[in-house]
Structure formats: structure tokens, C-alpha cells
Design goal:
heterodimer; A: 112 residues; mainly beta; 13 strands; B: 7-stranded mixed beta sheet; 4-stranded antiparallel beta sheet; 0% helix
Chain lengths: 112, 120
């Protein structure tokens, strides 16, 4: 299975500041036929279901604010929140869907 | 809009079985792959299984393979997860999620979840 790691485990950022979360996969998640990375990011708030933020490493999901952006390639990826809002407090997960056994990272807890 | 409503959770003893259901609406169910994802108390998300739009391909996490069976009834717009030989470590909130396409893509839309507790 592809192992996903994230850093940091937790992060405290001031309102309006930038938040950056990193994700690494144990092997490449690049689908060479389409040159797309099979990497997604999710936001999970307490008491709510997870929400898709990013797929294909950099494509925002439907209705996701443009302060959320994804980047990276190969085995290293980043989720950036450009200007933190109070409602962004959550745990953030990366996930690979390249392998038939999809795997999540351990999560990064984001606080104000 | 997309709606996914899980049901069937509850308290069961170790070794017993349970079937979860996920009723889908607001989209063409038969055209999308579907996932089950779980979260144990105070733990992170764990992907459980995926089934392609037509049931032609099915994949499981190693932790549940051989014990859990994912299936779907496209005539009823319903996804299922049949869980057998349940263990304490299967205790979790189980979410169904629509895939981003007809196969095993990202999880684009999620249900509210149903809680399964395995305890003697």
C-alpha cells in the first residue's frame, strides 16, 4: 500500500495569515496517461462529514473558496490556505487514489 | 443536490455481523463509483472500500478484506456494506461517499455517517 505522511501534526495560524500543510506519498501517485496526480485534500470539522477541497493535486472541488489551493508533484504535495478564516478550523487530510487501496494521511489539525 | 443517507449502524458484539445501507439521491447513482470510509473514535479517516459504477471492480482496505463486502443496487439507488466477524477495532463512524467519476476516484460528496459500535 502507498503510505501517506503529513506535516505538521498540528498548526496554529493567526486570522488572515497563510497556512501550509505538507503531504508525502511513499511512491509516486502520478497517472502518466493523463499526467495527473491522484492526490486529494479533505477538510473535516468536528461533528460534520468530511468535505472535498482539492483533487488531482491542484483542482478545487465544487464551491471551494479560492483561498484554498493545492500544489506539488511526484511524491510531495502542499495544501495552502492563503488567508485563514475562523471557519477553516478543522483537521485536514490528504489521500491518494492512485493505488487500488486508497489511503489517507494521518491528518493535520489546524487551529487559530 | 447530492444526498447520501447512511443507516444500519448500532451496537453489536464481537464476531457478529451488520449491514449498512446508503440511500442516494440528487444524482444518477448508476453512473458513479461509491466509497465507504470510516473514522474510529479520536482517530483519522480510514478508507474502507470502493465499488465502480456497475459493480465490475471492487477494492478493499487490507484491514477489512475477507470480512466486509461492498455492493450496490442501481435499481434502488442504494449502496451497501455487509460486515462480518466484527472486531472492537471496527468501531467507527462509517461514511458513504460518491466518487468523482465512474471508477475509484476521489470522494466528492459525503453522507452524514452512521455509528457502529462493536462491544461485548
Amino acid at each position: 500500500d502507498i503510505v501517506m505522511t503529513q506535516s505538521p501534526d498540528s498548526l496554529a495560524v493567526s486570522l488572515g495569515e497563510r497556512a501550509t500543510i505538507n503531504c508525502k506519498s511513499s511512491q509516486s501517485v502520478l497517472f502518466t496517461s493523463t499526467n495527473e496526480h491522484h492526490l486529494a485534500w479533505y477538510q473535516h470539522k468536528v461533528g460534520r462529514p468530511p468535505r472535498l477541497l482539492i483533487y488531482g493535486a491542484s483542482t478545487r472541488g465544487s464551491g471551494v473558496p479560492d483561498r484554498f489551493s493545492g500544489s506539488g508533484s511526484g511524491t510531495e504535495f502542499t495544501l495552502t490556505i492563503s488567508s485563514l478564516q475562523a471557519e477553516d478550523v478543522a483537521v485536514y487530510y490528504c489521500q491518494q487514489y492512485h493505488n487500488t487501496r486508497h489511503t489517507f494521511g494521518p491528518g493535520t489539525k489546524l487551529e487559530i | 443536490q447530492v444526498q447520501l443517507v447512511e443507516s444500519g449502524g448500532g451496537v453489536v458484539q464481537p464476531g457478529q455481523s451488520l449491514r449498512l445501507s446508503c440511500a442516494a439521491s440528487g444524482f444518477t447513482f448508476r453512473s458513479f463509483g461509491m466509497h465507504w470510509v470510516r473514522q474510529a473514535p479520536d482517530k483519522g479517516l480510514e478508507w474502507v472500500a470502493v465499488i465502480w459504477y456497475d459493480g465490475s471492480n471492487i477494492f478493499y482496505a487490507e484491514s477489512v478484506e475477507g470480512r466486509f463486502t461492498i455492493s450496490r443496487d442501481n435499481s434502488k439507488n442504494t449502496l451497501y456494506l455487509y460486515m462480518t466477524h466484527l472486531r472492537a477495532e471496527d468501531t467507527a463512524t462509517y461514511y458513504c461517499a460518491r466518487a468523482g467519476g465512474d471508477g475509484d476516484y476521489w470522494a466528492s460528496d459525503w453522507g452524514q455517517g452512521t455509528l457502529v459500535t462493536v462491544s461485548s
